[in-house]
Amino acid sequence: MPHLQQNQPSDVPPLELTGERTLPDVPEENYWYRRHVAAYEWIAERCAGLRVADLACGEGYGSELLARHAGEVVGVDANPDAFEHARRRYRRPNLRFERGLVEDFSESRDAIVFLQTIEHVERPAELLRHFASLAPVSYVSTPNRLTLAPPGAPKSDNPWHLREYTLAEYRELLEPCFDRIEILGLFHARKLRAHEVALRLGWDRVHPPLRLTKPFYSRFVPAISASDFRLGDSGLEGALDFLAVCHA
Q: What number of other Cβ atoms are within 10 A of residue 45's Cβ?
């Protein structure tokens, strides 16, 4: 059965979880949603008072998070259902949404935010150079292929991803497009870190025969929060995601 967003306002059409974008208000998707929120919250703190474009904004939750700090935010997405949902669901005086291709966005901004989407793009370098022409700083994230795809695979089985990057490949993509880049890694923290330790100790061998899988994960996954992730600049090869701060 399709997973639809739960508990939406009466005038807001719920979105279906397809794998193309992450969604809030879908309990089964909470891990991925909070993983995205952790990056958005870190960026939002650095955008106080700025004019920000959240490109490929999807459902709109990230644009709303940015608007809590930024002076002005425009969220841009080409998908008609996502656009209609976002403009109805998230309303702030300093927030607006536009339907359009990110390649066509041409407004000068103080900051560009482009999270977990460069792996969907056919000509990424061309788009990154466009960002550099629009804003002095761009925040661009992507999953780490080495922690997303099976060992030795060229990419994961996500059909929406055209290419996934290692740390070295990501640097090679970004550096010609900007004057300076800094790359941070997103990692598990708190209870997700404890879960990693439990897996190493054999948790996956224990919960199926004890019939604990569904009772445990039906509670554990919805309880994950953004604070169960952390950003850092060491051990990047093992990061879940790379967040690049790109200065033009």
A: 10
Instruction: Using a pLDDT cut of 90, give the percent of the chain over it.
Output: 97
| Number of domains within the chain | 1
165 is a domain residue: yes
Domain containing 158 equals 27-188+229-247
Question: Residue 184 belongs to a domain with what CATH number?
Answer: 3.40.50.150
Range 153-166 average pLDDT: 94
Classify residue 17: in a domain, yes or no: no
In a domain, 61, yes or no: yes
54 is a domain residue:
yes
Give burial (CB, 10 Å; 0-12/13-18/19+) of 66: buried
The model carries a pTM of 0.96
The pLDDT of 8-36, averaged and rounded, is: 95
Q: How many CA atoms lie within 13 A of 176 on its CB side?
A: 7
Q: What would the pLDDT profile of 67-121 be if each residue is shown by its tens digit?
A: 999 999 999 999 999 999 999 999 999 999 999 999 999 999 999 999 999 999 9
Q: Are 139 and 116 in contact (CB under 8 A)?
A: no
Burial (Cβ within 10 Å: 0-12, 13-18, ≥19) of residue 168: exposed
Query: 96: which residues sit within 8 A by CB, 6+ positions away?
Result: 73, 74, 75, 87
Say how far apart CA 183 and CA 240 lie, in whole Å: 13
